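Table S7 (text form). Paired inputs.
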Amino acid sequence: MRNPFEPLRLAGLLQRPRLWKRWIEFRTLSTFARSFSDMVKNAAMITTDGTIGMVATGAWNQELFQSLIENLPDGTWELVCHPGYNDSELQRLPTRLQKSRENELAILTAPASRELLERNRIELISYRDLD
């Protein structure tokens, strides 16, 4: 089950005023994090410690990605991203995340990103690896 709660640190966001509103929205939603954690625990479900990147959805660049990774708390976190191609099929869909998909794909597949993950000892896993 996805744990939608993000550690809402300001690192990397202060220079991005367009993300402030989303930060406030997610900050408000974070008041439900404890009850979510209790429900998951009581139901014996498995989830991550939370998500990173939700506040920055659609606004990624290499610098912000680096800030997210370098400020990642210990634990198991889901990176929320929407990499892909802005093809004709996607352009027919009502989403604000059309143009950002190719940008996120480029960031995630860049050699600098792989080096960043290795330098910060980040291991990429899938939900199958959760226990």
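Next pair, protein 2 of 2.
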Amino acid sequence: MQFQTLIFAVFFVLVLSANWLLRRHDMPRKLLLVLASYYFYFHMSFTWLMPSILAGSSLLNYFCGEGIFKAREAGNKGAQRAWFMLGIWGNLLTLGIFKYYGFFQENVENVLGNFGMSSHLPILEIMLPVGLSFYTFQGLSYIMDLNRGKGVRANTVVDFLLYISFFPQLLSGPICRPKELLPQLHEGLPQSIPEPSRAVSLILSGLFKNVVLSHYLYMHIVGDVFLDPSDYSAASLWVGMFAYALYIYVDFSGYTDLAVGLSLLMGVRIPHNFNHPYLASDVSNFWGRWHMTLSRWINDYLFVALGGRDINKRWTALFWAWVLCGLWHGAAWNYILWGAYFAIALLIHHYLRSGIKKKWKGGVAGQIGTFIVVCFGWVIFASPDLETLWAYLTGLWRFTAPGEGFEAFVLVVLVLGAFMHIFGERLRNGFIRLHDGMPPLLRPVAWLAIGLIILALKPSGMSPNLYFGF
């Protein structure tokens, strides 16, 4: 049940209506939203395994959080640590079994096979639950905040279940901190929908990115160029690299626009994830603009846990935090290499910042250089295996070698996507001004007209939602 489908539209209208009809009945309303979120999650696989894992993970974190809070209040440091470690290892075990076991088993077999040995580890056919990494991070942030004595405690188990499973942001974030979402659940709904015109503008923007730009880029170049890069000319590979950078942006930021817009209609504010990332003047600035909720999570929890506050451990902590960030994205060597690549890029940035970089303002040259560095990172990210990665990177420099080209139409989509990246916020603000100036009865007509235009532009076929696999 993806956001851009008719069945989701029907589901959302029903849930939205019930949400506001029950505004004065807070607990029944929240119970309804929990059930709706689990029903939505069930529809992603039509098996109860995924909702069961979600429920188990949520209850683990809730009761560990309760144990941490009560032990801390009683001054029982031993019990507090025991509950905390139970929560940490429970979450890591869940990730390990469902996301990383296959990768571990395969690599152990490959290493031992070189010596004529076998591990005899069982091969488990385990389905990766959609959104597992996202909601696991939300659960971890809850128990880690409570352990530090800085967290917001859920009033009830229902509040916590909703905090983890709230369907607009369940599958691919944004990763909400307890302090960002739980107080809103405790306070109940506002008197009316906050910023309805902004919510609609985000939904329409997200649909255009997701339904039109993302699909065209995937179907006309991105979906093919990484299958066998040796078939393509160097020029096509360069265009493919830039196209992938735009594709991952419109795909993921489009989903985030939809998540934020749908949440606003339901009376809930969740954080944004993107702020013109390809206009960043250096790599550190890029990660302050791209997937911002993940970047903050890595910095506040993982970097600190690895000793990042210790001046002697800072750079080692930064390196391993970003390697683990790569592994968080997927159980494959290309993701680990991608994390290491950006770790090295950040280390170089911090080293240079103490010298020439301190005086250099970046400007357009910094933006272009940063964009190219990021694009090479996306080649690592997108390559399904190391052989494909090598073929792509070497093919970028074979300017005399023949190969397939690309449709000129791709350039039109690239220009449109770049325009949305640079001017998307201004377009939304312009829509809001027009929307607010319209007679109320005309507003739904405008929404419908723009929605129909987006559907008319939609290509046949669908591209995969990239971040659903994380």
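The chain has a mean pLDDT of 90.
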